[in-house]
Amino acid sequence: MKAKITEMMERPNVLLRGNFACAGCGLSIAYRTSISALDRPIVVIPACCSSVIQSLHPNVAFNVPTLNIAFAAHASAASGIARAKKMRGEEVTTVVWSGDGGTYDIGLATWSGAAERNENIIHFCYDNNFYSNTGAQRSGATPRGAVTTTTPEGKKEKRKSITRIMAAHDIPYIATASIGYPRDLYAKVKKASTIEGYRFILIDAPCPTGWLSDPAITPELGELAVKTGYFPLYEIENGNLIFSRKGEKYRDPENRVPLEEYLSKQNRFKKMTPSQIVEVKKDIQHEWDQLVRLE
Ligand SMILES: Cc1ncc(C[n+]2csc(CCOP(=O)(O)OP(=O)(O)O)c2C)c(N)n1
Ligand code: SF4
Predict the structure, then answer these.
(1) To test ligand 1's pocket by mutation, which of 132, 138, 142, 160 has the most ligand atoms within 8 angstroms of CB?
(2) pLDDT in tens, 147-176
């Protein structure tokens, strides 16, 4: 299927003006690009920035049916919706739209059950690397060295590999995508929408408020994450990993942009020492080495 991102312009705007997102919010770009690609979406949202940017009652900026649900309940609520709609013969696309806190940590048990049952859901995780809504606490997605309100000296541990945990569930489709490459993101969402069962899309979504970065460079940070090898782009279809055309060349460390260029544009990394930067480079290479084994 050939997906053209320009068709977004012909579709209803899923994220209306006057929403409460911060300037340069990567999550709002991810949301608009992803949800626009879907036919008749119903979106289930656990507690996160996406619950907040919807605006205050009686106004609402999310222009699709949306269920706000308790943090850990997203995939179980979505399972019920998907099954009920199927019983009634109604064709919808049931979506979980969760932050990394809701996916890597607090909602893990719920989505693991739904993935094991292969429920007919597309699970999006917009990954801004921490719990931004409650003031930037560390999550399992926070990279080593990043300052958060609960790691004031920089996080000591490396980031969890959520896609490899998801892959262990043998679900039919997994993809990584970035707001720095919106065409690639849009095409992956379109593709996911043609597949039945539990599908997972992890989207790198910079958060200028918590990353202490310039809101004007949010898409550039998305690109740099790919070009430095920090955020590899790939799909895993029925267990087989394929690196995406946009990011494939960065599997060779020689082709990568120096990581320092990415780190220096975010004040959350300002306390990192040269030896910690070496550690993060090792973390990045470790993840690539593990991914290559799934090819
Ligand atoms: C069980 C439970 N624990 C904690 C909270 C408080 N809480 C609400 S949103 C949130 C952070 C969500 O983080 P994430 O999923 O990464 O999304 P983001 O805020 O970054 O968009 C927390 C801790 C809650 N609502 N429920
Ligand atoms: S705190 Fe970050 S993720 Fe949340 S709305 Fe602001 S920029 Fe977006």
Answers:
(1) 132
(2) 999 999 999 999 999 999 999 999 999 999
Could you identify the residue written with the tokens 């790198």? 204
Ligand nearest, relative to CA of residue 50: 1
Going from the Cα of 69 to the center of ligand 1, the distance in angstroms, rounded, reads 11
Q: Which residues contact 295 (CB under 8 A, 6 or more apart)?
A: 240, 241, 242, 243
Whole-number average pLDDT of the chain: 96
In the chain, how many domains are there?
1
CA angle (32, 175, 159) in 5-degree steps: 95
Ligand 1 mean position, distance from CA 94 (Å): 21
Which element (helix H / strand E) includes 130?
strand 130-131
Please state, in angstroms and as integers, the Cα–Cα distance from residue 235 to each residue in 15, 93, 140, 187, following that order: 27, 20, 22, 12
Encoding tokens for residue 143?
Answer: 């990279």
User: pLDDT tens, 221-270?
Assistant: 999 999 999 999 999 999 999 999 989 999 999 999 999 999 999 999 99
Atom of ligand 1 nearest to the CA of 49: 21
Read off the CATH number of the domain in which 17 is found. Answer: 3.40.50.970
The finding on whether 128 has its CB within 6 A of some atom of ligand 2 is yes
Domain extent, residue 71, equals 5-292
Q: Which two tokens stand for residue 161?
A: 């590999």
